[in-house]
Amino acid sequence: MLPEAFLARTAADVGRPALAVLPVGAFEQHGSHLPLATDSLIAGALAAGLAEETGALLLPVLPVSCSQEHAGFPGTVWLAAGTLAAVVGDMRASLAHAGIERLAIVNAHGGNLVLAHLAREANLEAPRVWLGPGRHIQEAAFAAAGIETSVHDDMHAGEYETSVLLHCWPQLVRMADAADELAERPQLAVKGLAAYSRSGTVGRPTRATAAKGRAALAAMVEAMAAEVRDTFGLEA
Hints:
The protein has eight helices and four strands; from the N terminus they run H-E-H-E-H-E-H-E-H-H-H-H.
């Protein structure tokens, strides 16, 4: 999920960074063509790029989060929203103890709504937590990469996520099993995704390519780094 250089670090390699980057993934169904760890893989890739661009301390991926909307499909596990908030809060406290007051959270699962509330509370007096990539970054990256499906329609296991895995981990993608399915989901929080998608997909994975994944990742990392530097007043 994270580069070998991350796994090989020792305490002597950390130094005194001004920022830490926390990737938040999930362990949930992604149709029949993508692995359960898809969000964690993507979060790790984005976070590694952001940490490299900003000189930040890269933290390990949180591999389980708030995936209750996928409860109708096998293989999905989740944390309660309060548990996820508590885990991130504990990590922030330990970072602050080491003198790192700023945290960039790279969230690859849309169901982690509690993270937005956590960020708002943390930022009441000064910017301390950045949360992204936001919709504006996603839309710009989709356009730059030539992803044909909109961010709204490409909600889950679609063109974007499949493209990223084709670029980074093609051996994990079962394209023969990919199924396009578009669905509005007006009561997702009430009924769950199984009420709207038979395949577990919302998007067009059959339009995915490795080239789109490479371009989307690059565009997102560049935009996230610029926004994080601006938010925290970091030098480029």
